[in-house]
Amino acid sequence: MAQITLGSTWITTDCNGFGALPIQRVNMETAVKILRKAYEGGMTFFDTSRVYSDSEEKIGRAFEGTREKIFIATKTRATTPEEFRKDLETSLSTMKTDYIDIYQFHWPNVCYRPGDGTGMYECMLEAKKQGNIRHIGLTNHRLDVALECVDSGLYETLQYPFNYLSSEKEIELVEKCKDADMGFIAMKALSGGLITNSAAAYAFMTQFDNVLPIWGIQRETELDEFLGYKDNPPQLTDERKAFIEKEKQELTGDFCRGCGYCMPCPAGIEINLCARMSHLIRRSPSEDWLTPKAQEMMKKVEGCLECGECKSKCPYGLDAQELLKKNYEDYEKILAGEVKIN
Q1: Which of 129, 156, 205, 299 could bridge to 135 as Cys pair (CB 3.0-4.6 Å)?
Q2: Could you tell me the CATH number of the domain that includes residue 87?
Q3: How close are the terminal C-alpha atoms of the chain, in Å?
Q4: How far apart are CA 340 and CA 342, in angstroms?
Q5: Residues 206 and 141 reside in one and the same domain
Q6: pTM of the complete model
Q7: Residue 141: in which H helix or E strand, if any?
Q8: What span, in angstroms and rounded, lies between the C-alpha atoms of 330 and 268?
Q9: Number of continuous H segments (helices) and E segments (strands) in the chain
Q10: For 245-290, what is each residue's pLDDT tens digit?
Q11: Domains in the chain, number
């Protein structure tokens, strides 16, 4: 099985990372079963966050007694030293461990530095000195913040959206991390569900020997797909290259990536789903998005306050209000049978 080394951390792991956000949606027994099966199948890197409800608890339950055989990365959304210390203590306790391999600032709006007055980077250094964390990282969706953090030399890993829909600027970011000996963890490797061909997604990643993709998994069938690539990894053939190019023409540009930076919405709209419903409903089982619950979710778009908050917070500069409107109109036509979907 191919291995990836995350820059100067010297963490070397299977090239399939386990993204543990989705396991918050399944019960404890199912989650533990999936996590253990992932480990038994060769996965050793597990990424979670303090804000993923009970995801950390499930990881703690699954790997009690085998902690030293895996790598755990988690995150904090803290913006004060007090919140940071509370989050770290909770994560350690919940995951039944005395150390975290990579502790990441989760979507910071700035590049935290020593002496910047926030005390946040000093918290990381203190935690590392005490042995509670081993490496300092961050996650982000803002290219400017990500680039500043790479240039700072203060961070050992960067987690950033990366997949075959990524732009040249994002590919340059990957290369910049490699030059800086900084580990690159690829979140949104399936673009939040828009990419449905895992073999093509996997094959694309094989071009980058410094990129560790983390696949969001909540079902055994999804896990089996990636474990199945252990002995027969998909190759980036000419046929797959042509497929990827076709996908890029359809999906790049003015579409919601589902990052959630625009949330929360004051009108209670789930913008990161509603603003890309047209793509989701056509690229995944449509019945999942036509349930009464899904219809109720989309109905909230009618209550948009047109406050402009979502547009101002979008790191991709999208007009989220306009995307909500277009997606809602399309959805209503689908419900009425005016537009046919496969």
Answers
A1: 156
A2: 3.20.20.100
A3: 36
A4: 7
A5: yes
A6: 0.88
A7: none
A8: 20
A9: 14, 10
A10: 999 888 776 778 788 888 889 999 999 899 989 888 887 777 888 9
A11: 2
